[in-house]
């Protein structure tokens, strides 16, 4: 027992030592933290200082606001701050100083008395809270005790019972208004847009503040004008012109109540209205316009209660302060407090849907790619015919049992089948000597071998046909995989949107009498919702181009679900455009021309020109060339690249059988970069007519549809405005010897594509004696620069 007691005591001592050591370490850590220097210029410290500076200005303004001699607004604001747990020891001295500044000794003593009453109530709150008792009822009764401080000075002032009653009514009502107005600011930290009732209560605070500020007499300097103009400038830049004018009106109402002069309100409204007109202009213009507005107002409505010099000074000082305020700070205020984000949900849905679509496109591309690989690599083997002669021919022979005992028989039969498969038919020479010497039924053996060889050839033909079909399908699937991957890459790119420009665009279009309700600028595509009757293509394109600083053109006009409204889609206008001409003549008059041509836009900034020359002439050739060209157009519209288009169309035509042969010439121009791809298949030369020279690009290969596998010739070059592209069919080319067609093109001095096409065709007919030996077509396209 004694030993246990001693051990217990020792353990207690150890615990005490450990606790003392921990306490010592903790105290040293606290001391170290206390010794750490405080950065008074940190962002957090500056924000705290700014917060209490704003509260101090509000207290000084509200303490000086009065109605019929009573000043309840400062005390009510002070009480509301305590209600929101603003530190008592920090805000109380500020309140006492504000009361002293507004009412002298009377304000000093009443302020101290109010602080004592409210301080005592805070002590009472702590006591009741420690006893687990409610204090909520005191928050409604406590403001009434401030009346005691007011009534205590009745013997020393002109106050009477009516003044005390008015004070009591105003302080109780204003406390509730301040609590409603400050709750979203102090408690909720402006997490949501203020409600209408909160805005009304906040407007009451601004009116009272305007009255208080205008009541201070610092050598006649209008503090109310100083603060009102600065807030007006800031509100115009961040919240919009309407809110800025409302703020000026509220300050003006306060000033008018204090001065008993309604012209004060008109002065505030006049300079604010002129100032907000320049809210989107450079910063300096807003203060200057406010000064100009006030001077104009003073010129027409001057009276002695309007000290012009002091007002001009106040507006100038506030304008300077506004100009020194960083634009980034104003932008943050606007984004945090005043941006309604009315299109955020729509934009989020657009981005999310694009990302989901991109994932699905990538997945679909992966499926097509896997299917293409599987089809290309799934090789169907021919049947194994080993032992087939033994099972089909020998098994029915009466000598089978005797022959089967010889092991060399089956080997000889299989060797005979291999020889038959190699030669393609069965003859006596294909029978091995072993079988010739022993087999009693050679005729049956040869017949069976021929039947097996025929069956094998049929199976191999089916396998080759299936392989060819799989190859065509796999090729298309591989092309689809590439198209889907390209679409996915374009779709997954985040769409940038410009809210500011959208707002300006709506305003500018409405100003130009284009009734526009919505605008969306996303990934260089501009979407407008406007009244159909106000549509004006020229005005819309000029306005959008001026605001976006890029040339735009109307791409489509669609109806909407709203009656009388249309959806207008605008896309960037390419740097260049294409004008073209065509001249053609059939081999024999009255027959169809076997050449087919095409001029189409691929997207909004790519152009395709193609010429297909069907084999022969007349209706059959026209049908062949038209079919080939139609397939080419569809593939290009789907997004396939040039070489893949020709290979795919060629395989399709080759698999259909018949004489679907056609030479093909394709030219694709990017109208922004002027990068040009020329893809040729068994077609005559293509010519590029430049300023002083003609460039010749030759073709190669068999016509489309002759062979299953082709290699079209692809050439990339860069054009410049006024260059001309010339495609001509064989009927034209064959009318010129050597390279005389280049010289003829160079000698035709015209920039008109139609005139050049007709001139080349006339040259060809002249060289051939007035007629042509084949269907003939000339296509000419000229690059023209778009007007900026």
Verbal overview:
The protein is an alpha+beta fold and 788 residues long. Among the domains are: 51-216, no CATH class; 499-572, Alpha-Beta Complex (Hypothetical Protein Ta0175, Chain: A, domain 2), CATH 3.90.1070; 576-785, Phosphatase 2c, domain 1 (4-Layer Sandwich). It has 26 helices and 14 strands. The protein has helices at 2-35, 43-63, 73-83, 88-130, 136-151, 161-187, 196-215, 223-238, 241-259, 263-276, 285-301, 308-324, 327-338, 344-377, 388-392, 400-404, 408-423, 433-438, 442-492, 499-511, 537-548, 618-638, 642-656, 730-733, 740-747, 753-767; strands at 516-522, 525-531, 552-559, 565-572, 576-585, 595-601, 606-614, 662-670, 675-681, 686-689, 694-697, 713-718, 724-728, 776-785. The protein has a five-stranded antiparallel sheet with strand order 5-14-13-10-11. Helix 2 crosses helix 4. The termini are far apart. 33% of the residues are buried. Mean pLDDT is 75; it is low at 1-36.
Protein structure class: alpha+beta
Q: Looking at the structure, what is the overall shape?
A: elongated
User: How much β-strand is present in the residues?
Assistant: 5-15%
What is the CATH H-level superfamily of the domain at 576-785? PPM-type phosphatase domain
């Amino acid at each position: 027992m004694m030993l246990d007691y001693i051990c217990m005591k020792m353990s207690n001592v150890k615990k005490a030592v450990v606790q003392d050591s921990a306490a010592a370490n903790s105290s040293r850590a606290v001391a170290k933290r206390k010794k750490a220097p405080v950065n008074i210029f940190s962002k957090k410290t500056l924000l705290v200082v700014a917060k209490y500076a704003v509260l101090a200005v509000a207290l000084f303004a509200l303490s000086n606001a009065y109605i019929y001699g009573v000043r309840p607004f400062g005390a009510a604001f002070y009480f509301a701050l305590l209600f929101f747990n603003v530190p008592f020891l920090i805000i109380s001295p500020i309140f006492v100083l504000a009361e002293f500044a507004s009412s002298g000794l009377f304000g000093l003593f009443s302020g101290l008395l109010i602080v004592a009453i409210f301080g005592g109530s805070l002590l009472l709150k702590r006591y009741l809270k420690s006893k687990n008792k409610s204090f909520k009822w005191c928050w409604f009764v406590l403001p009434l005790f401030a009346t005691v401080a007011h009534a205590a000075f009745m013997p020393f002032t002109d106050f009477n019972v009516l003044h005390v009653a008015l004070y009591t009514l105003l302080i109780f009502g204003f406390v509730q208004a301040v609590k409603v107005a400050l709750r979203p600011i102090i408690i909720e930290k402006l997490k949501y847009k203020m409600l209408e009732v909160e805005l009304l209560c906040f407007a009451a605070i601004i009116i009272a503040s305007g009255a208080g500020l205008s009541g201070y007499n610092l050598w006649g300097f209008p503090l109310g004008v100083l603060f009102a103009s600065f807030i007006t400038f800031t509100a115009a830049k961040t919240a919009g012109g309407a809110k800025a004018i409302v703020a000026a009106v509220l300050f003006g109402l306060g000033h008018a109540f204090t001065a008993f002069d309604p012209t004060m309100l008109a002065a505030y409204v006049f300079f604010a209205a002129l100032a907000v007109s320049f809210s989107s202009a450079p910063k300096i213009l807003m203060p200057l316009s406010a000064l100009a507005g006030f001077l104009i107002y003073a010129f027409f409505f001057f009276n002695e209660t309007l000290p012009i010099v002091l007002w001009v000074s106040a507006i100038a000082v506030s304008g300077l302060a506004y100009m020194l305020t960083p634009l980034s700070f104003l932008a943050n205020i606007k984004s945090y407090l005043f941006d309604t984000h009315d299109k955020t949900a729509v934009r989020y849905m657009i981005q999310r849907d694009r990302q989901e679509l991109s994932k699905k496109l990538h997945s679909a591309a992966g499926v097509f790619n896997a299917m293409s690989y599987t089809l290309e690599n799934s090789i169907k083997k021919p049947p194994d015919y080993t032992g087939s002669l033994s099972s089909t021919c020998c098994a029915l022979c009466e000598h089978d049992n005797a022959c089967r005992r010889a092991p060399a028989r089956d080997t000889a039969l299989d060797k005979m089948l291999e020889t038959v498969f190699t030669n393609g038919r069965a003859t006596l020479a294909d029978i091995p000597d072993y079988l010739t010497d022993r087999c009693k039924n050679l005729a049956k053996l040869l017949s069976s071998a021929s039947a097996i060889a025929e069956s094998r050839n049929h199976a191999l033909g089916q396998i080759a046909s299936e392989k060819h079909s799989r190859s065509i399908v796999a090729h298309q699937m591989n092309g689809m995989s590439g198209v889907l991957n390209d679409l996915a890459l374009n779709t997954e790119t985040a769409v940038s949107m410009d809210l500011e420009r959208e707002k300006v665009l709506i305003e500018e279009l409405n100003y130009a009498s284009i009734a526009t309700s919505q605008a969306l600028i996303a990934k260089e595509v501009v979407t407008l919702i406007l009244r159909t009757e106000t549509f004006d293509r020229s005005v819309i394109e000029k306005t959008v181009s001026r605001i976006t600083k890029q040339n735009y053109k109307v791409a489509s006009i669609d109806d909407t679900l709203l009656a009388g409204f249309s959806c207008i889609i605008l896309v960037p206008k390419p740097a260049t455009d294409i004008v073209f001409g065509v001249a053609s003549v059939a081999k024999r008059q009255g027959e169809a021309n076997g050449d087919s041509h095409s001029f189409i836009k691929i997207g909004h900034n790519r152009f395709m020109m193609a010429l297909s020359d069907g084999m022969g002439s007349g209706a059959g050739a026209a049908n062949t060339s038209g079919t080939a060209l139609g397939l080419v157009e569809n593939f290009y519209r789907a997004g396939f690249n040039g070489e893949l288009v020709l290979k795919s169309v060629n395989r399709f035509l080759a698999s259909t059988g018949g004489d679907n042969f056609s030479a093909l010439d394709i030219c694709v121009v990017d109208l922004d970069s002027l990068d040009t791809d020329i893809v040729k298949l068994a077609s005559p030369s293509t010519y590029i007519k430049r300023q002083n020279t003609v460039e010749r690009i030759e073709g190669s290969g068999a016509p489309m549809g002759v062979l299953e596998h082709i290699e079209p010739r692809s050439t990339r070059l860069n054009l410049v405005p006024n260059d001309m592209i010339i495609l001509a069919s064989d009927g034209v080319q064959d009318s010129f010897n050597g390279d005389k067609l280049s010289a003829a093109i160079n000698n035709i001095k015209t920039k008109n594509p139609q005139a050049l096409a007709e001139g080349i065709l006339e040259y060809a007919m002249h060289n051939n004696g007035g007629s042509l030996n084949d269907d003939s077509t000339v296509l000419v396209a000229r690059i023209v620069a778009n007007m900026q």
